Protein 1
Amino acid sequence: MNTIAVLPLVLLAAVFSGTTGIELPSSFRICKRTLPEQEYYKCVSESARDAVVSLAGGLKSFKILPIEPLAVDSVKIGESQGSVTLRQEYRNIKLHGLTKQLEVKNYRIDWDKCLLTSESYNPQVDFVADYRIDGKILLLPVKGSGKSNITMYDLKTQNEIHCEKYQKNGETYIRVTKYDVKFSPGRVTLRFDNLFDGDTILGEQMNRFINENSDLLFKELQAPYEETFGLVFAKVANDIFIRVPFNKIFPLT
Ligand SMILES: *[C@@H]1O[C@H](CO)[C@@H](O)[C@H](O)[C@H]1NC(C)=O
């Protein structure tokens, strides 16, 4: 994802460019590590949130595309065992809402391990895509392709950003090696248009059935979702980190 609301790091980074001569908006806040710990983390949480929100329209000088909505190529989910045996494919994915009413809290940074953790919250995030599904949900055959919209309400996201330091031109930089995202939505609704070749009666019944079992279906979606968005968030973060030295992003004083 927060993500979705999910890019706290990113923002952070964005906050402090310099060497490259790129000027960031003066509204971006830099947090000094000399602050008392509580204050520092509060500052980082807020500056991360502001930075993510400011990336809504993208950041040209960092080659970052708009994240409102956030575009993702495709997600493929193979047939799994259990009550949902469904091949699912999503293309032209747009994630709407990551920057809307975003909250970021509990930022923590372990400098030795190069590990940044935080929690974020969004009231509503829509995963809108072209879908193709084929298989069974609780013994019921389901098949179709068209437009889909999966909505997560009260979305809590845990972000775990693993990084490593390296040297370039005599300066220390960091790169994200792994961006772990964990989504915990309060509620999920799903909408698949054009199921069963557009048979509206069957299609409506199946949509109702799917929503009555949305927890089950979302469990199938969750891991590939998180993996995909983790990769996207890592890329956005790295677009900043490759351009800005570490001590410009996290200045000691
Ligand atoms: C997706 O569904 C949500 C919830 O119904 C709605 O608010 C949103 O506008 C929909 N988005 C699209 C593109 O249909």
Note: The chain has five helices and six strands.
Protein 2
Amino acid sequence: MRYSAMRVLLEGLTGNRGWKPVWRDPEPKPQYDVVIVGGGGHGLATAYYLAKQFGQQNIAVLEKGWIGSGNVGRNTTIIRSNYLLPGNEPFYEFSLKLWEGLEQDFNYNAMVSQRSILNLIHSDPQRDAFARRANAMLLAGADAELVDAAQLRRELPFLDFDNARFPIRGGLFQRRGGTVRHDAVAWGYARGADSLGVDIIQNCEVTGFNIDNGICRGVETTRGNIRAGKTAVCVAGSSSRVMALAGMRLPIESHVLQAFVTEGLKPLLPGVITFGAGHFYVSQSDKGGLVFGGDIDGYNSYAQRGNLPVVEDVCEGGMAIMPMIGRARLLRSWGGIMDMSMDGSPFIDKTHIDGLYFNGGWCYGGFKATPASGYCYAHLLAKDTPHPTATEYRLDRFARGHLIDEKGQGAQPNLH
Ligand SMILES: Cc1cc2nc3c(=O)[nH]c(=O)nc-3n(C[C@H](O)[C@H](O)[C@H](O)COP(=O)(O)OP(=O)(O)OC[C@H]3O[C@@H](n4cnc5c(N)ncnc54)[C@H](O)[C@@H]3O)c2cc1C
């Protein structure tokens, strides 16, 4: 069924009895050409592009819970491509371009809203760093705009410009950045993949890999063994645990990241705003709630909940740039498990085990990467060579000394 304004009108007039389930609920088959482990945004996007762009058939996505139960449905929904390094920037710009055409592509309203993202500048050295980043973005074909405090005062008069400790000196805008309704992305890709024949199997946990003489022949699951020509893991926060089942130890740690939503307010924030002297990012949802977050909690965890010191730290960041946020009541908060890599950048690669592929290490920036990650992983699975924008996301880059360390923090996952 294709969705359209006409369809909504027709269904409205006939009692909404014609809507079909958005995807099927098939029984697992004994064998697939490609088995994707993890039905988050990245796994579903991979299945969709494998079927749509690379003409592969006989694909399954195995999800231990339900579609949207992981980080794809827990993030703060920000999309952008304002990166500095050549290993990252072309990839994230490719992703932003895919976001721009996504709703038409998979015929689903994902509420892609290019309402802009602004990184605030609070010092002269920070302005220099953002000027350099803006130039890197422009060189990669992205948009970037450095603005001074006077222009910001006109556009966002509610910010606390003259805060003695963190005065606002300007900002770096990416006007094409913004937000996307996160769980609609999972549903849209699931629907698109299902309509191309992909089996999406929920409540099916992968508990082991069938590895024979260095070749991965398939997976063991809570719903039986499934043979696979290729097995593609993308389980985000569970990466270390799942790859340990194949005997692999990854350069990844799992940490918890929290998100917060206030009660609904009248329209206030035109776009996404990030605090440059601490870690705080905020946007306003279409329902009016301020959606915000900050740093990870800073300790290893597989729990999908965080602790109070970080709640305080995040709210302090908000108060520093927009003190009126202190009047808003917090409605909800939750946590998600982040697969923090040692240099803050991801992996899309084959492993040393034939037929076993790995996608992970997205830290807390993987939502914006969803379309490009799916596309590039599908490219790797179909052609066995990396997509041109994802050539640096190799598992051996630490051994080679080719880190992609945007923040220059070194091997310190909790600081990326
Ligand atoms: C609070 C928070 C805020 C964030 N904000 C942003 C943001 O604003 N912008 C941004 O770009 N990124 C953000 N992120 C990061 C982003 O959400 C993640 O990097 C991204 O969603 C990870 O990819 P995914 O969607 O595939 O993960 P997930 O949705 O977590 O998918 C992985 C799936 O694997 C499944 N799985 C695990 N183990 C198994 C198994 N053994 N067998 C089968 N299935 C298994 C899980 O159940 C899960 O559904 C945020 C994350 C959090 C938690």
Note: Residues 89-106 form the longest helix (18 residues).
